[in-house]
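Long-time lurker. I teach an intro course on protein structure, and each term I like to show students one example going from raw sequence to a predicted 3D structure in token notation. This year I'd like something fresh instead of my usual example. Would anyone be willing to generate the tokens for the chain below so I can use it in lecture? Attribution to the forum is fine with me.
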Amino acid sequence: MNTLNNYKYFMVDVFTEQPFHGVPLPVFSDASGLSDRQMQQISTELNASCTIFLQRADKNNRRDIRVFSKECELPCSVHAIQAASYVLASTVIPLINNHNLISFSSTMKGHEKIINSHVSKNDDGEIGIIQQTYDTHAAIDYYTPTTEELAAMLSLNPADIGFDNYRPLIVSCGIPYLIVPIMSYTAIREAKFNEAAWSNSSAPSSLAQEILLFANNTDDNSADFHARLLGPTFAHNEDPPIGSVIPAFASHICDHPHIQKGTHVFGIQRGDNNGRQSHFFIEMDNQQSKDLTIRVGGYAVLVGEGQIRVY
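-- Reply from a regular --
Happy to contribute to a lecture. Here you go:
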């Protein structure tokens, strides 16, 4: 007879202060005893963009973290750390100080690292902003498709490409992204990926498989930039999470000749103004070097909890 175990999970909307905004992610705060196969089965069953599994690593606040999509294990992302930090601070780790450290050990082979997260306590004693710290190194390629090629692959006009002397770049902090400045929020929302134009351009040879569009016109939104990911794996109406590209985007901003040395803070909005939005707060220490320390901050909201039966 098979033994039945119940595993509790929490559903969290991350990088938002409003329920049913941001990105919804399930978090298993204690995944002890689950095999790789079971974690993959659970992730497929829950059908979220990714599912987070935590295990206690030592006597302190550190946790081992595993992240699975519906298809495979993934490197740990800023969204996963945000969701995991919120769940732990909500359930098992008391907010003793104004800023409380939680450390995560990513154990995926080839992506092993320690990630520190600081959970702040607001004036009401509740969870405030959650901030993660990353030391990154960027490889930047200035040889990108022409303005005409970019416009064709994005179904836009050449006049929509570029603003304020920002230029398209291919930036990699481990994964290469084609990052393209766009004249307006409206143009970003109207952009549609044209696979034929992409295939006929020089973009595929760069190994970048996703394009980050960004503009500084967010239509009365408080963010400094609006951003959206497009690419051959996304549907036309998709607005996927952008957490994985944040380090590359920060490096792109620092490469701009008018960004001076020092600490800079800015906000990024993802999502249609009338849809499901995410808001990131980015703090970066620009030393005019390819090495960059960034801090990614935001809020999260608990929207539900449940149990999975594992046989």
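Some talking points for your students: The two ends are 10 Å apart (CA to CA). Residues 85 and 102 are 7 Å apart (CA to CA).
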